[in-house]
Amino acid sequence: MNTQSNLERVLESGAFAVTSECGPPRSAAGDVILRKGLMLKHCTDAVNVTDNQTAIVRMSSLASCVLLKSIGIDPVLQMVCRDRNRIALQSDILGAAALGIDNLLCLSGDHQSFGNQPGAKNVYDIDSMQLLACARDMCENGRFISDLGEYEMDTPPSMFIGAAANPFADPSDYRVLRLAKKVNSGARFIQTQCIFNLKKFGRWMKDVRAMGLHEQVYILGGVTPLKSAGMARYMRDKVAGMDVPDSVIRRMEGLKGEAAREMGIKICVETIKKLKKMEGVSGVHIMAIEWEDAVPQIVEMAELLPRP
Amino acid sequence: MIVAETKPIEEIYGFIEPYNKIMVLGCGGCVSVCLSGGEKEVGVLTSALKLKRKIDGRELEVVEMTIPRQCDWEYFDLMGSRLDEVEAVVSIGCGAGVQALVKKFPDSLVYPGLNTSFLGVGEKPGVWVEYCQGCGSCVLGLTGGICPVARCSKHILNGPCGGSEKGMCEVDPKNIPCVWQLIYDRLKSIDRLDLIEKIMDMKDWSTATDGGVRRMENPEVFALEHKQQEDKEPAKG
Questions:
Q1: Counting Cβ atoms within 10 Å, is residue A155 exposed (0-12), middle (13-18) or buried (19+)?
Q2: A211 interface with B at CB cutoff 8 Å
Q3: Pairing mode of beta strands A218-223, B88-91
Q4: Residue B26: how many CB atoms within 10 A of its CB?
Q5: pLDDT for position B237
Q6: Phi, psi of A195 (to 5 degrees)
Q7: Of A53, A246, B60, B130, whose Cβ has the fewest other Cβ atoms within 10 Å?
Q8: Is A164's Cβ below 8 Å from some Cβ in B?
């Protein structure tokens, strides 16, 4: 099934896709989104908009997607299961489709205890796997989640549906099986957790290929440019499911300011070039956390310009 | 069992501020086992309240009592007329016990002394852990007897999420095991990983608190009760 998604078009064409992400502001400043969008527009095929990431209240993902769409970007609506039950999720999928949002990334979401609203009710009515299946059923069959009715919508949404995968979390020998479950639930593209440990990612990809999953789903490897050795250590020690090898930390160590940022970009570009050569990897997802202006340079240095 | 924790003493002290003679009522059930609402805890709370009152320059009289269960009507009879002696009761039963007491003695003033927390198991001395959420449609048959609804921080049925590291949950890596790691290891050990290869369907939460206030009827007992009622009041005409 084909949608209006630019990301889908690029992936179907066989080109190596580039996506990035844009974190909405903690205010009503729509111009922040537009400014970030303008930086990313020429060097990406689609831009993810995070959904209250790390459980901190921000401008809504859907509203930010609409702002990006208004300047000609193909936004990827990130939707987490933490804050909304199945009624609200389905309603937002319809609204997003009506507003011209063509990509949906289904996630479970960061637990609210990490953010600035730790007393919030934890919804998780459905999980990311079930949200994928729900979105697929809405798009392909025009049906809502329902045990009762046979209602079929006259204008179903049409969206390119994806999910996340973390090749580095535990239990490691279950991770590829879980990816298979996501593919069976309806994921057509996958964006992975940040890759710093290429060896481990390579082993995961080998298992992915052994199951033939790379032929059923587009896999975009996640990368993040490091700003400092401190950031690298923080990610290694404090972020669960994040694997930053000592070799990467050693390369960052002793470097300050601009020199550290340059090294971070260099490592990121090297990773992208290696991912490009890896069988079954269809693209790259660049998550430059609050550092969107590094993305054009990374894409250029990775020889991925101009975008198709 | 039902696990409950003692409320902060200041909160209980605030409840009883207007009264000079109260009862502290313990429960011999679950809350005795988890060391928060039994006979011993009645004594501890009584001493604490009396001491605090003394410091504030007022006397407090306390009737101490513990009944086998606060959630069954018949045990309230054991209280005799002791309730008439006091102005208010602090119940250190669970939330069900406090409410049963209120229902049984609508003229009494009843205050809770505990925060009722969860259905759990004592994993080691002095440590109780949530094991069941009373969701009303048990999934343990599909998960190797380990519950993701109660024991996954996100209650996800197709876990683990990306926050599982070295067997622990990112929400509290020191204390919360990743239940999906436990489920995975368990199913692997009994050669039933096939159970989590399938996508687990979304849950019907209408059997949980989300479906409205729950009740359970035992049809046999219900029918018997109904018959006895009819025998007492034969149909007219």
A1: exposed
A2: no
A3: unpaired
A4: 28
A5: 46
A6: -100, 115
A7: A246
A8: yes
CB contact under 8 Å between A122 and B154, yes or no, is yes
Mean pLDDT confidence for A152-162: 95
Contacts of B195 in chain A (CB under 8 A): none
DSSP A101-153: --EEEEE----GGGSS-TTS----SS-HHHHHHHHHHHHHH---S-SS-----
Asked if A240's CB is within 8 angstroms of B163's CB, the reply is yes
Q: Of all helices (H) and strands (E), which one includes residue B47?
A: helix B39-55
Average pLDDT estimate for B62-75: 97
Contact A170, B181 (CB under 8 A): yes
Kindly determine whether residue A240 and residue B156, on different chains, have CB atoms separated by under 8 Å.
no
Is residue A136 within 8 Å of A171, Cβ to Cβ? no
Can you read off the two tokens belonging to residue A83?
């804050």
Tell me whether strands A160-165 and A103-107 are parallel, antiparallel or unpaired: parallel
Helices (H), chain A: 6-13, 30-40, 61-70, 86-98, 128-141, 175-185, 198-210, 229-238, 246-252, 257-277, 295-301
Cβ-based contacts of A130 with chain B (< 8 Å): 157-158, 199, 201-202
Domains of chain A: 6-291 (3.20.20.220)
Answer for the pair A304, A29: CB distance below 8 angstroms, yes or no. Answer: no
- The answer to whether the beta carbons of residues A3 and A102 sit under 8 Å apart is yes
Give the residue carrying structure tokens 């313990």: B26
Give contacts of A122 with chain B, Cβ < 8 Å: 153-155
- Overall size of chain A counted in residues: 308
Under an 8 A CB cutoff, do B171 and A113 touch?
yes
Residue B27 touches chain A, beta carbons under 8 Å: no
Distance CA A170, CA A229 (A): 25
With beta carbons less than 8 A apart as the criterion, state whether A165 and A178 touch: yes
Residues in chain B: 237
Is the complex ipTM more than 0.95? Answer: no
Residues A251, A260: contact at Cβ < 8 Å? no
Which residues, other chains included, contact A96 with Cβ-Cβ below 8 Å and sequence gap of 6+?
A62, A65, A77, A104, A157, A159
A149 has a pLDDT exceeding 80: no
What pLDDT, on the 0 to 100 scale, is given for residue B235?
Answer: 58
User: Which chain A positions have a beta carbon within 8 Å of B203's beta carbon?
Assistant: 126
CA distance linking residue B200 with residue A150, whole number of Å:
22
Domains of chain B from N-terminus onward: 2-118 (3.40.50.2300), 135-201 (no CATH)
Our CA-based measurement puts residue A242 at a distance from the nearest CA of chain B, in whole angstroms, of 9
